[in-house]
Amino acid sequence: MAGSSMRVGDVEIIAVQDSHFPCPTNVGFPSVAKETWEQLAPDVAATGVAQLTIGCFAVRAPGMTVVVDTGIGPAGAPGFGIGPGRLPDALKEAGIAPEDVDAVLITHLHIDHVGWNARLENGVAIPTFPRARYYFGRRDYEFFTAADQIEGSAFLKVQAVPLVEQGRAELYDAETRLGGTITLIATPGHTPGHATVGIASGDEHGFILGDVAHHPAQVGNPGIRAGFDADGEEAQRSREALWERLTSLGAKVAAGHFPPPGFGRVVLTEGRRLWQAL
Ligand SMILES: [Zn+2]
């Protein structure tokens, strides 16, 4: 499919869409005024719905194949209007089999980012990617699996906890490197341990965003906060700092919740930052 992959030096980033989330703005962005949407995204203002992709990315780096986030999973989230995910089929269409994957990088432990990590068979969690190491942010893991939190994120009892108990997971801290080209970079706020995936190869830079932003309008106005942010103020600081970094590096960007395939750049035009889709 044209436009579904992007190169950063020797690294290929492939967009693999899992599902789609028609997100009512009063749920997803409750603090954002209609006038703000009218300025930056008239379609959202007109409908009251932000059309969010549930997107994942496969990364072919020298010596390793990586999946970044695993979507909503096979059941979808009917209560949110999110249909069943199709990540394994999308990977197959890209020529990637589950056993090809060396590492699964999870930007944060929300339900729409871990859905295909594992499946239950006779009460046992079986990893979707049989050879892969699964990377979870240590701060997210400790926060969401604490005794007083886990029932609010019960899906983690299948999608994260057993993988840690089976010795298949790594709990990463800020600025963790994988191979020669990939770095997990702390961008907290949306969740306590949220990370962005940085890629550097040759003289090119690429970033896979996770939920630093859910909609391109947040490039022009980083003050647009998502209702799902654990700490909206910290999330905004992470977003502003990242936009500055992306602009100064001239980086290519892959954003999982943006319109597919989610590839673009953050450009500075006449003093304003804008999302420029590739
Ligand atoms: Zn998300």
Portion of residues in beta strands equals 25-35%
The separation of the N and C termini measures 14 Å
Bound molecules: zinc ion
Q: Which second-level CATH architecture applies?
A: 4-Layer Sandwich
CATH class: Alpha Beta
Question: Which geometry do the CA atoms define?
Answer: globular
- Helix vs. strand class: alpha+beta
Q: Which descriptors would you attach to this protein?
A:
278 residues; seven-stranded mixed sheet; globular; binds zinc ion
Can you characterise this structure?
The strands form 3 sheets. A 7-stranded mixed beta sheet has the order 1-2-3-4-5-8-9. Strands 10-11-12-13-14-15-16 form a 7-stranded mixed beta sheet. A two-stranded antiparallel ribbon has the order 6-7. The mean pLDDT is 96. Strand 14 (252-254) and strand 15 form a beta hairpin. Helices cover 22% and strands 33% of the residues. It is α+β, with helices and mostly antiparallel strands and 278 residues long. It has one domain (5-277): 4-Layer Sandwich (Metallo-beta-lactamase, Chain A). The protein contains 9 helices and 16 strands. The protein has helices at 25-28, 34-40, 42-47, 87-93, 138-144, 156-159, 161-165, 217-220, 232-249; strands at 5-8, 11-24, 49-61, 64-68, 103-105, 118-121, 124-127, 133-137, 169-172, 176-178, 182-186, 195-201, 204-208, 252-254, 263-269, 272-277. The structure holds zinc ion. Residues 110, 112-113, 211, 257 line the site of zinc ion (ZN).
